[in-house]
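Hi W.,

Here's what went into the run:
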Amino acid sequence: MSTQTLPVPDRTSIISMQGLEKKFGTFTALRDIDLDVREGEILTFLGPSGCGKTTLMRIIAGFEDPTAGSLQLRGADMRRLPPEKRPINMVFQRYALFPHLDVFDNVAFGLRLKNWPAARINERVGRMLKMVQMDTMATRWIHELSGGQSQRVALARALANEPQLLLLDEPLAALDLKIRHHMLSELKRIQRETGTTFVYVTHDQDEAMILSSRIVLMNHGRIEQLGTPDELYFHPVSLFAAKFLGETNILPAEVRSGAGDDAVLEGLAGRMRASHLPKGLADGQKVHVSIRPETVSLSDSTVGTAPEINGALAEITQIQPIGSRVVYTARLDNGTEMRSQTVRPPDALPLAMGQKVHLKWSEAAVAVLTA
Amino acid sequence: MRWSFPSFDRRQRSGLALAAPTAVFLVIFFVVPAAVLLVYSFWISRSFQITPTLTLSNYLRALGNAGMWLSMWNGVWIGAWTAVFSVALSFPVAWYIAYRTRSNAILYAVLLSWFSSYLVRIYAWRTILGTSGLINSTLMQLGMIDQPLSFLIFSRTAVIVTLVHLFVPFTLLLLLSALRNVRTDYLEAARDLGASWRQSFLRVVVPMAYKGIVGSFMFTFILAAGDFISPQLLGGREGVTTGLLISNQFRQTGNWSFGAALAFILLGVFLFAYFLVAQSMRLGRLSPGLRFHPTLPTQEKA
Ligand SMILES: Nc1ncnc2c1ncn2[C@@H]1O[C@H](COP(=O)(O)OP(=O)(O)O)[C@@H](O)[C@H]1O
Ligand SMILES: [Mg+2]
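Here's what came out:
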C-alpha cells in the first residue's frame, strides 16, 4: 500500500497547494509542496527546526508570498488576498497578545474591527473566554498572565473571529511539560467543540502523534511523508521518517529471491520477510529495514531453537530500565546491535547481562525503506 | 495621638536602600534647585541683589505684560512646530531602521550630526537661509525669484528649521527604541485579526510606542520652546521667546526673582501642554492601558 495520501475527493479540502515553492534570495526554504488541508481535521506540520514549517504556515496566513505554485482556498486563488481578508487566524508562537489591552479587549480586537455592537461582542468574548476557562480573568492585563493563561487567551482571540482555519505555530513550546500535556487535551477538546480545522506546527513527535488526524513530515523544505500518525509510525517510507518518529533499529539489507510479494531480505540480522513491501522492489536492490524495539522480543536461548527467519541469536550487552520500560541492547555474532523494549515487570528482570538470547520479530514489524 | 517611627521589615529596608540613590539624586539635582528658584520668585531682586520680602509682584508683572504673552506665543509656536516636524520626520526613518533594514548605517549617519557643535550648526543654517545664502542665491540664479526670500532668515521658520535639525537625532533614537519593543508579530497579529494597515498602526503601533511618541514630542517641545540661542541668532523680531527673556533676567538685568517667576509660568505652560497631549491621545483611544468594555466588578479575585 502507498502512504502518500492524494487529495481524497469525498472530503472537502479548505486549502489546496500545488507545486508550492518559497525562495529567500537564493535559498530555497520550500519546494514541491503538494498538500490539501481537509475540512475539520487537525493537520500537523512536523519536522526538525529549520525545515520550513513556519514558512509554510506563514504562506497560508498570507505573511509570505510563495515564489511559485498555486495556493487555493476552496478552489479560489488565494495569493492576492492580504492576511486581513483571509478567513484564517493564527496563534503566534510567542502569543503576541497586545500588552496595552486587557484580556477582554484582546479577544474583542478582531470583533471591534468588524464594528460589531457591544452586546454581540460581549456575548462572543464571554463565550470564548469560558471555552478556554479564562472567564474569571477578563479584566487582567497581559503581563499578569502565566504562560498557560496567555496561551488560552491567544487561542480565544484567534477563535473569536470564527475562522475557517486556525493556524498554531508551536503553541506549546514555551510551556513546561505538565501544562503542555494538559493543553494538548484542551486543544483537542476545543477543536471538537468548535469543529474548526487546525493546522498545527511542531517539532515534537509526541505532540504530533497525540493530536493529529494527519501528519505532514517535513525535511529540508520538502514533504518527506504525509499520512496518519499510525501510517507514519508503522510504515515510514524513508530512513528520515523512520528515525524521526520514535526509536527504531535501522539495518541495511538487500532484496533477494524475487521482487514479488514474497521477497526475502537478507541483511546483518539474517533473513527476513516483511508483510508490507514498497512497490517496484528489484532483486539485489539495497534497502534499509526499520524494526521498532517494542516489536523485538527476547527469550532465553537455551529454550527452543533460533528462528530461521525474522530472528537472530544474540548476547545481552546492556540493560536499561527507564521508568515503566526496560530497553535491552543485544549483540549479534556479526557485531550488529539491536535494541528490544518491553514493559518492566514489577519483580526482578528475567534476563541478565551476558545472557544468550533469541531475538524475534513479526513480518508486520519490518518496514522496508527505499529512500 | 502618639506618633512612632515606622519600623520596616527586611524587604522594605532593602527596597529603601535600592531607591535611596535615585532619591538623593533627585533631591540634589531637581528638588533643591527648584525649591530655591520657587522661593526667589516670591522675593524681590534688583541688580543681582535679592531681598527676602514676600510678594506676588513678579507674577503679576509678568502676567500683566503683553510682551511676555507674545514671547510665550513665540516660544510655544516654535516648540510645537519643532516637535511636530521632528517626530514626523524621524518616524518613517525609525520605522525603516526598526523593520526594513538590518544595518545601522542610517542611525550612525544621523548621530554623526551630533559631532558638530550647536553653534556651528546654527551658523551653518544662517549661511544656508540668509539673504545672500545658499537657497536665495540659487533661486535667484535660476531666475525663480527677483528678491531674496526674506522670511527664510530672522523668522520663526528659520528657528524651527534649525531646531528640527538639532532635535531629529533625539527623536529618532527615542522612537527607534519604542518601535524596537513593537515586535513584528504584534503587527502581524493585528493584520491576522482583520486590521488594515492603518488600523494596525492606530490600534497597535501607536499605543504600544506611546511612551516613545509622546515622550519624544514633549521632550522636543519643552527644549525647543525654552531655547534662547537659536531664537536670538536666527529669529529676529520673532525670536523673542520667554526663554530669552528668562536668560536676560538672569544674565543682564539681574532680576532673578522676575526670571524665576517667568520660569515657573513657563513650567505651568509645559504642564498644561502635556495634559493637552495626554488627554487628546486618550480621547483618540491611542493611549495604552484603556479598557474599552464596561469593567465588570472584580470577578478575578479568586
Ligand atoms: N525571512 C527570511 N529570510 C531568509 N531566510 C528565511 C526567512 N524566514 C525563514 N528563513 C529560512 O528558511 C528556513 C525555514 O525556516 P522556518 O520555516 O522558520 O523553519 P521551521 O519553522 O521549520 O523551524 C530556515 O533555514 C530559515 O533560516
Ligand atoms: Mg518555526
